[in-house]
Each structure stands twice: as structure tokens, then as C-alpha cells.
Specification:
Shape: globular
Strand content: 15-25%
Number of strands: 8
Distance between the termini: 95 Å
Order of helices and strands: HHHEEEEEEHEEHH
Helix content: 40-55%
CATH topology of the largest domain: Jelly Rolls
CATH architecture of the largest domain: Sandwich
Number of domains: 2
Length: about 170
């Protein structure tokens, strides 16, 4: 008789645990997207990634607020991050001369990400700005593990650089 009671107790506990796990899985399905998730979804650089791939990308990304005047990149100094402005503008100064004012969700620090060299220019926020900070080391690890994410990001960064190079060439003509 006691063995039967123990068996019923074990079965009851198992069913209770299964019920808890099922309820938890439904709760996860109903979770609202995080602010970082929503920010990543707004960025053209990540348009060709799936929602799941953008979710993986969150491991290398941090959402931050920057004040006007904040220096994002220092010319000649090693940089271990890339930045994507979500609003606001940034001023780019190379060798003491203003070379650009960037707006419209620009990518900053991609040259340093690509060549692992020091900052090619200074970059300052012109106004208070919300931005995504991408950790280069974490992003590299992620791209090695998830080849499609790596391919998409490198392809999109190459397109950004091509547009900037063409614009620079047109200015010098």
C-alpha cells in the first residue's frame, strides 16, 4: 500500500513540474521585446538578419545614452567598440578638420573594427543621443560561431564603406 502511495506522489510531482514548465514556456512566448531588441530592429545594418539572429546579436550589444560633446572615438587610440547612433548626430574630425556630420543611424568605428587599427578620426556627439555599442571581441566571436550573421554584417559594412568612399571621391572631383 505504501509503495502505491509513493508512486502516486511521484507521478503527481512529475505532472506538477511539467505543468510549471508548460506555463513558463507560454510566459516566455508572451514576453515583450526588450528595448535593445527593438533598437536592433530599427537599424538598417541588421535588416537582413532574422529576429532570432538579432536576438543572438544582443550578446555583443549594449544600449546606451550619450550626452552632447561625448567623444566616441579618439584619433590614434585603439578602439574596441563600434557604435550605431539611433538618433542625434555626430561630428567627425580628422587631423583637426571637420570631415563629416553623420546622422540617420550611422555606424561609427567600423574602420577600426575591420582593420583593428587605431581610430582614424575623432568622433563627438553633437547632441544627446541614444546609441548601440557593439563590443568588437564579442561580435567577432559571435560571427565565427554564426557564419550567416558574420556574412550579413560584413556585407552590410562593406556597402556602408563603399557609399562613404564614393561620396569622398565625388567631393574630391
Amino acid at each position: 500500500m505504501n509503495i502505491r502511495l509513493i508512486e502516486l506522489s511521484v507521478v503527481s510531482v512529475v505532472f506538477a513540474l511539467i505543468g510549471i514548465m508548460v506555463c513558463d514556456s507560454f510566459a516566455v512566448d508572451k514576453m515583450e521585446p526588450s528595448e535593445l531588441s527593438e533598437a536592433l530592429a530599427q537599424v538598417e545594418l541588421f535588416d537582413k538578419l532574422t529576429d532570432a539572429e538579432r536576438g543572438v546579436l544582443e550578446a555583443a550589444a549594449t544600449l546606451r545614452d550619450g550626452k552632447a560633446g561625448k567623444q566616441m572615438i579618439e584619433q590614434g587610440k585603439k578602439l574596441d567598440k563600434m557604435f550605431i547612433l539611433l538618433n542625434g548626430r555626430a561630428e567627425v574630425i580628422a587631423n583637426g578638420e571637420r570631415v563629416a556630420v553623420l546622422s540617420g543611424r550611422p555606424l561609427l568605428g567600423e574602420i577600426e573594427f575591420l582593420d583593428k587599427g587605431p581610430g582614424s578620426a575623432d568622433a563627438f556627439l553633437i547632441e544627446d543621443t541614444k546609441f548601440i555599442e557593439l563590443d568588437n571581441a564579442e561580435l567577432n566571436k559571435l560571427m565565427e560561431k554564426h557564419h550567416r550573421i558574420g556574412y550579413v554584417l560584413m556585407h552590410e559594412i562593406a556597402k556602408i564603406e563603399a557609399v562613404r568612399l564614393r561620396a569622398t571621391n565625388q567631393k574630391s572631383d
